[in-house]
Amino acid sequence: MRKLLIVGATSTIAEHTARRFAADGDALFLVGRNDTRLAAIAEDLRVRGAAQVATHVMDADDLSAHGPMLDAAEAELGGLDTVLVAYGTLPDQTACQADPSAAVAAWHTNAVSVVALLTDVANRFERRGGGLIAAISSVAGDRGRASNYVYGSAKAGLNAFLDGLRHRLFARGVQVLSIRPGMVDTPMTADFDKGPLFAQPDKVAGDIHKAICRRRAVLYTPGFWRLIMTVITCLPRAVFHRSKL
Amino acid sequence: MAGHDYRSWGRYPAATPAEVHRPVTREHAIAGRASSMLAYGNGRSYGDSCLNHDGTLLAMRSLDRFIAFDPASGLLECEAGVLLGDILALVIPQGWFLPVTPGTQFVSVGGAIANDVHGKNHHRAGTFGRHVRSLELCRSDGSHLVCTPDDNADWFAATVGGLGLTGAITRASIALRRIQGAFMDVESRRFGHLDDFFALSAESNDDYEYTVAWVDCTARGTRLGRGWFMRANHRPALGQSPDPGRRSGPTFPFVTPVSMINRFTLKPLNTLYYYRSIKNRSRTNQHYQPFFYPLDGIAHWNRAYGPRGFVQYQCVVPHDDGRAAITELLDRIAAANAGSFLSVLKIFGDVPSPGMLSFPRPGVTLALDFPNPGPRTFALLDALDQVVMAAGGAVYPAKDARMSAAAFDRYFPDWRAFCAYVDPAFNSDFWRRVTDHDTDPNQDRPT
Ligand SMILES: Cc1cc2nc3c(=O)[nH]c(=O)nc-3n(C[C@H](O)[C@H](O)[C@H](O)COP(=O)(O)OP(=O)(O)OC[C@H]3O[C@@H](n4cnc5c(N)ncnc54)[C@H](O)[C@@H]3O)c2cc1C
């Protein structure tokens, strides 16, 4: 039985992922900003077979709330062995270009707060000599592109941070998973036209569940994104600059 | 993989919503929407009862959470967007089954209630709505009404079978049925004529929980109504139930340029099916999925009907004249060289439906598809309507895309009383059509 903490548990991908772990009979600690939504998700996960579900309200942007939240999770579940960071915002690129504070806010949520949170988690897992840290990043972090480089660069920072964390904690038996989904059909992308590249959250959740169970290091989901991003990162700059990506 | 297109299963008629709202919580199911809304479940209705052209669709699938399940009593409470298949996946390992299930498991709880769906056990269990213990109705005035057969009973009766017009159903509790395993004891028998169907149905009524017949709608004369009769019961547990491998079947990859079911393939396909086995009778131990959901194994099979889509016709005629009416219907369909690969016949029992506008009623029901909706098909279906009306029967709104306002009025005389329960901000393409008594129903049809 896993003792799993999910931060950003009301996100659609997180909710679908949590269902997989609930069906496995795991114990779950759900963190999000909205109490009623957390409560509805917790009910559902109990019916689906979770051994235990507790909820906790926190705004991840408030860095001082992280420590107490982790203490509460450990107390509630009697320890922790898996942490999934699933929150994030998709900022409006045009707004971020016009307003430095919008760009910084996007960075704060998508990178700075995750760095703060995972530094604390990493230290706890290092002390106990085991555990698994997973964070939802994005394929957008693989190469900065005009259409969403503020978001993408925050995720790129996160990816490098996760790589380093994995390197550091390897010797202590702590696994670090960087999850890179492409476009997913969720409320976050509600205003987008859904082309054939959009994946359903349940498919992405299945991939995440599998990658966590198999202790993988990097997950592209759906898998075809690995190929797409390889092509995009390899495009010579002269060609890339003429493209509209 | 692609984002959702909000169509109906028959892919006819076309309709585009002006806006799609995907509620995240039950509390905000219809938040802030003011006019012409309609809840959309999983789009497994064939015609236009789940469509709202130029209006708002409330895409209820996002409310897909379980709320409570008591494995001792079998009472399940969930949000309205949960699919019947998700319920089965959860409860079968715990020894429970749906009390009533239609021929596909990709139907939402809200959709099952709004059409008060029936299954192969109608003669025993009645409709889905019989087993709904309570439901929550979210209205455009902001109220959330909890309805049970006893509390707000009139709203309950209006909402069960209410075609999504009384408001959005956000949650429901359903009394499940005990089973011991995932397998069915299924007997199939070939029969040569419609009369044999009636005889087999009568004979199976008491001993079999599930009965249904596939008929060859191309056969006439002494072979009219020939087909296969299937009857089944749940098996007592025998060992472990293997993983059914749900949703892992093939996908029909694209919309074929013309319907693969057409006047050239119709007769050979039906004949082939009738002679599929050299034995007249077989008894098998079958997993519940192929028994209940023979078509779910091929995702998007509706694409085989080509870009023009198809219409389905399902009617019920009362017992007394049922035989004569079904004979006439089958005869007309065969004479027109129209109809589907496999048509379905089933006896509805006399367990009353709880809904004001529910379709099932005691009698014989016939269901079949018609590819490529066009003037010939519509003329034939209008002729079938005359037969059904004369027999005092009804046509199923969930499968309909073309019945006239006058026909609807004959089939569902309670609709005027039902209007008192229609939410003023809700409407559907179906409802506009069948309540519009001023226009000629033929004018919008393809020519
Ligand atoms: C292969 C196949 C086999 C079938 N077999 C049968 C059968 O054996 N018996 C049978 O009875 N039917 C059968 N059907 C029809 C199907 O069961 C019904 O059309 C069912 O209602 C579809 O449910 P849905 O969730 O897809 O809803 P939709 O088709 O999306 O909507 C159906 C109706 O429900 C309303 N609705 C949906 N959700 C809500 C909600 N939350 N609140 C209020 N209203 C709501 C809609 O407004 C609409 O009026 C079959 C369909 C297919 C494709």
Write the layout of secondary structure elements.
The complex is a heterodimer of chains A (245) and B (447).
Chain A: E1 3-7, H1 12-23, E2 27-32, H2 35-47, E3 52-57, H3 66-77, E4 82-85, H4 93-98, H5 100-128, E5 131-136, H6 149-169, E6 174-181, H7 201-213, E7 218-221, H8 224-234, H9 237-240
Parallel strand pairs in A: 1-2, 1-4, 2-3, 4-5, 5-6, 6-7
Helix pairs in contact in A: 1-2, 1-7, 5-6
Chain B: E1 19-21, E2 37-40, E3 56-59, E4 66-70, E5 75-79, H1 84-91, E6 96-97, H2 109-114, H3 122-125, E7 132-138, E8 144-147, H4 153-159, E9 168-175, E10 177-178, E11 183-191, H5 194-204, E12 210-215, E13 227-234, H6 266-274, E14 281-287, H7 288-292, E15 310-317, H8 319-335, E16 343-348, E17 363-371, H9 375-390, E18 394-395, H10 405-411, H11 415-418, H12 429-434
Parallel strand pairs in B: 1-3, 2-3
Antiparallel strand pairs in B: 4-5, 5-9, 6-10, 7-8, 7-9, 11-13, 11-14, 12-13, 12-16, 15-17, 15-18, 16-17
Flavin-adenine dinucleotide binds at residues 9, 38-45, 49-50, 60, 80, 102-104, 107-108, 110-112, 114-115, 117-119, 163-164, 168-169, 295, 398 of chain B.
Structure description:
The complex is a heterodimer of chains A (about 240) and B (about 450). Chain A has about 240 residues and is an alpha/beta fold. Helix content of chain A is about 50%, strand content about 15%. The mean pLDDT of chain A is about 95. Chain A has helices at about 10-25, 35-45, 65-75, 95-100, 100-130, 150-170, 200-215, 225-235, 235-240; strands at about 5, 25-30, 50-55, 80-85, 130-135, 175-180, 220. In chain A, strands 3-2-1-4-5-6-7 form a seven-stranded parallel β-sheet, sandwiched between helices. Chain A has nine helices and seven strands, in the order E-H-E-H-E-H-E-H-H-E-H-E-H-E-H-H. In chain B, strands 14-11-13-12-16-17-15-18 form an eight-stranded antiparallel β-sheet, with helices on both faces. Helices cover about 20% and strands about 20% of the residues of chain B. Chain B has helices spanning about 85-90, 110-115, 120-125, 155-160, 195-205, 265-275, 290, 320-335, 375-390, 405-410, 415-420, 430-435; strands at about 20, 35-40, 55-60, 65-70, 75-80, 95, 130-140, 145, 170-175, 175-180, 185-190, 210-215, 225-235, 280-285, 310-315, 345-350, 365-370, 395. The model of chain B has no long low-confidence stretch (mean pLDDT about 90). In chain B, helix 8 runs antiparallel to helix 9. At the A-B interface, helix 2 of A face strand 4 of B. Bound molecules: flavin-adenine dinucleotide. Flavin-adenine dinucleotide binds near residues 38, 107, 111 and 169 of chain B.
